[in-house]
Specification:
The protein has helices spanning 48-60, 80-92, 107-119, 133-139, 177-194, 196-210, 214-234, 249-259, 266-283, 289-301, 316-324, 353-363; strands spanning 4-8, 15-20, 38-44, 65-71, 100-105, 126-130, 144-149, 152-159, 164-168, 337-340, 346-349. By secondary structure, the protein is α/β, with parallel strands linked by helices. It is globular, with a radius of gyration of 20 Å. The chain binds nicotinamide-adenine-dinucleotide and glycine.
């Protein structure tokens, strides 16, 4: 398969996203990276047995000292304590500020490794080698890095761009079906907020995507990265436009935090959150009911939940509202939602609590 390259234009922080097969273990993939004496591969105990040795071998010709750090797997480990393990290894091995980090894994490893790179000695270079669909279409691109805090998801972090992103589609073959569906949530997201033709393409190809057909995956990853690169190039630090990439995330983050990190997958929470955000858009008169229904059908077909979980026995909607006020998009305690605008785009705005409560009550099954 050919290597497709999507460029992300951020002046001196510009970089390429390479998309193809058999890329991550090919030394040529890393040829343009700067010379350094040390490289640290950060991965987890699920991905390491599958891919770490192959990456280590690909890097050994270029870097004299290549170490691999294996972290525990799971969103519940996206914490300060786990992040500190990266700093421990860097310091114990006398790694200098030219040391280059390689994030090998999904979004959890990528976000933590990126944050470690942003902070170690005030910044060392890093490369994203995403191995989940979600990470290839979203989290590895655009430079958002960080960890969770018990009071809020991704609340501690930094904007810090990688030197390169290596999306090897072959690594998706070992991904469990549930994780593939979670990644599809972030692929679907790009359609209603930026490209209705892409939404139609996903509707027509969702079965091929779920069957991991290479041509379908290659198109989905490339188009998603193109849209993300276009948005991030205009608004790297989320002063405005970039917030549209959080479609479904305000409700989704409440679900993740309310159930406890790791209970629902991030993509599952985002999928359900998009159903809720589309309903809110409809109830505010921004879109036709047909668009909300179309999106719900696609999210269901992608194997994602469309019914929201109950987060509290009494005043469930109040619990959602409380959790959503911690969202980074909230301003002076007012929750701001990414809503569909009816013309193939999205807007960031508030909504009356009463209407949000209606959406939550209609979306949740509370026994
Ligand atoms: P994840 O990193 O937890 O990976 C999902 C699971 O798949 C894990 O168990 C992992 O070990 C396993 N895995 C990874 N690659 C595999 C492979 N090739 N074969 C088999 N198993 C594999 O989850 P994720 O969905 O990749 O990422 C979710 C995280 O990304 C969340 O923490 C979320 O907040 C973050 N995120 C960040 C951004 C951003 O812009 N930085 C955007 C979206 C999501
Ligand atoms: N995943 C949302 C963003 O990168 O802005």
């Amino acid at each position: 398969m050919n290597v497709r390259t999507v460029s992300i234009d951020l002046q001196q922080r510009s970089y390429n996203i390479a998309i193809g097969d058999s890329l991550f273990d090919n030394p040529a993939t890393y040829a343009e990276l700067p010379i350094a004496s040390s490289a640290l591969i950060v991965t987890n105990n699920t991905v390491a047995p599958l891919y770490a040795q192959r990456l280590q071998r690909a890097l050994q010709g270029k870097y004299a000292n290549v170490q691999t750090l294996i972290l525990p797997d799971g969103e519940e480990y996206k914490t300060w304590q786990t992040l500190n393990q990266i700093f421990d290894v860097l310091l114990q091995n006398g790694c200098d500020r030219k040391t280059i980090l390689f994030a090998l894994g999904g979004g959890v490893v990528g976000d933590m490794t990126g944050f470690a790179a942003a902070s170690y000695m005030r910044g060392v270079p890093f490369v994203q080698v995403p191995t989940t669909l979600l990470a290839q279409v979203d989290s590895s691109v655009g430079g958002k890095t960080g960890i969770n805090h018990p009071l809020g998801k991704n609340m501690i972090g930094a904007f810090y761009q990688p030197l390169k992103v290596v999306c090897d589609l072959a690594t998706l073959k070992t991904l469990p079906a549930r994780e593939l569906s979670a990644g599809l949530a972030e692929v679907i997201k790009y359609g209603p907020i930026a490209d209705l033709d892409f939404l139609s393409w996903i509707e027509n190809n969702v079965d091929a995507l779920m069957a991991c057909e290479p041509a379908a995956l290659a198109h989905a990853v490339r188009r998603s990265c193109e849209i993300k690169a276009w948005v991030v190039a205009q608004d790297e630090r989320e002063a405005g436009l970039r917030a549209i990439l959080n479609f479904g995330h305000t409700f989704g983050h409440a679900i993740e935090a309310g159930l406890g990190y790791g209970s629902w997958l991030h993509g599952e929470a985002v999928g359900c959150g998009m159903v809720m955000a589309a309903q809110l858009s409809y109830r505010l008169g921004l879109v036709e009911l047909a668009l909300a229904q179309r999106l719900t059908a696609l999210i269901r077909k992608a194997g994602l939940p469309v019914t929201a979980p109950c987060l509290a026995e009494t005043d469930n909607a109040g619990r959602y509202l409380e959790l959503m006020r911690v969202d980074k998009k909230a301003q002076s305690g007012e929750i701001r939602f990414v809503l569909l605008d009816g013309s193939g785009g999205a807007v960031l705005r508030g909504a009356p609590d009463a209407l949000v409560r209606e959406v939550i009550d209609a979306s949740c099954i509370c026994l």
